[in-house]
Design goal:
Helix 1 packs across helix 9 and helix 8 crosses helix 12. This protein is of the alpha/beta class. The two termini are about 30 Å apart.
């Protein structure tokens, strides 16, 4: 049992947007578990800003975000590494405004994305290419940040479509928009969100990073065991309705999209690495081994301390 620390260390954690896979982070804060470990955790909403600079400068200690920027930095010899998994598969549907009832009807349309170097842009291209639409000839994209800004833009009609995660796709359907299918049907393997850190700052003393991961692992397991309470956190923080929060919980736990043991989906990360190389965002001569981009020491230790499997990533 950890006693409450009297002196808390400020810890700033970057998140891309208010989406369900941040529920363990929010739960760890609201339940006081980070404070028990001596960390005063504050979340910083990043939108489509780069996570690299704030991690390198130390203005953020970790980011719960897409792995691409970390892969790009590591491939160039930088110190960023993936320290744990979070969302090990995609949980998005292609949502369009009412007039666009088929994927092919999006020809000439405008689609919202996070940015052109990471996240859902690559999956969106794959899905539309399957239906004969190719970027940039057949549609344009608008860099606008994560899922909530895309929902707002869809409502305002400034974009025609975009990939929306659960429960935002339910919200869109209720608002009269079309759901043209789940992205996992086109891209089944993809490490979507990971816990990213500048390991040069933790080599000498990894204790705070270990504490952070320990709480996040505890909170992720708690989420999987407590539907009502976890849904209440999502309802408050997203914010959304109780019904949508519970439907989101069902999806993320039943599919293990919110990875219960915080493993990295190795096959999914291999696909991300290869996609980055193909797009010219990682040099062709860069390492393709998943292990080069991982620093799993903290999650292995956290699992051992929680009595969970300590074998590392599966």
């Amino acid at each position: 049992m950890h006693l409450q620390h009297t002196h808390l260390t400020p810890w700033r954690v970057g998140i891309v947007s208010k989406t369900f896979f941040n529920v363990p982070l929010w739960a760890g804060i609201s339940m006081g578990w980070f404070a028990q470990e001596g960390l005063d955790v504050e979340t910083v909403l990043m939108g489509n800003a780069s996570q690299v600079e704030p991690l390198l400068s130390g203005s953020l200690q970790v980011v719960l975000g897409t792995p691409e920027a970390t892969l790009q930095n590591a491939a160039k010899g930088g110190p960023l590494r993936i320290v744990a998994g979070n969302t090990g598969k995609l949980s998005h549907s292609l949502i369009t405004r009412a007039p666009f009832k088929t994927v092919t009807s999006l020809k000439g349309g405008k689609l919202g994305i996070l940015n052109k170097v990471e996240g859902s842009f690559f999956q969106l291209k794959a899905m539309l290419a399957h239906h004969g639409l190719h970027y940039p000839a057949d549609y344009e994209v608008v860099e606008m940040g994560g899922v909530p800004p895309r929902h707002k833009a869809l409502l305002e009609g400034t974009i025609d479509g975009g990939l929306q995660s659960i429960p935002w796709n339910y919200v869109a359907e209720e608002a009269g928009m079309n759901n043209l299918g789940e992205i996992t049907g086109y891209v089944p393997d993809w490490q979507f969100v990971s816990v990213n850190a500048d390991m040069s700052k933790f080599r000498a003393d990894p204790s705070q990073l270990e504490a952070f991961i320990r709480v996040l692992l505890r909170a992720t397991e708690w989420l999987h065991q407590h539907k009502t309470e976890a849904s209440m956190v999502a309802e408050k923080e997203l914010p959304t309705t109780s019904e949508y929060a519970q439907r989101a919980w069902d999806y993320y736990t039943e599919t293990n999209a919110l990875t219960r043991d915080m493993s990295v989906n190795r096959k999914g990360l291999e696909v991300v690495i290869q996609t980055q190389i193909d797009a010219g965002l990682i040099p062709k001569e860069a390492p393709t081994s998943v292990d080069f981009y991982l620093a799993p020491e903290c999650i292995i230790k956290a699992r051992a301390q929680s009595g969970a499997d300590a074998e590392g990533n599966h």
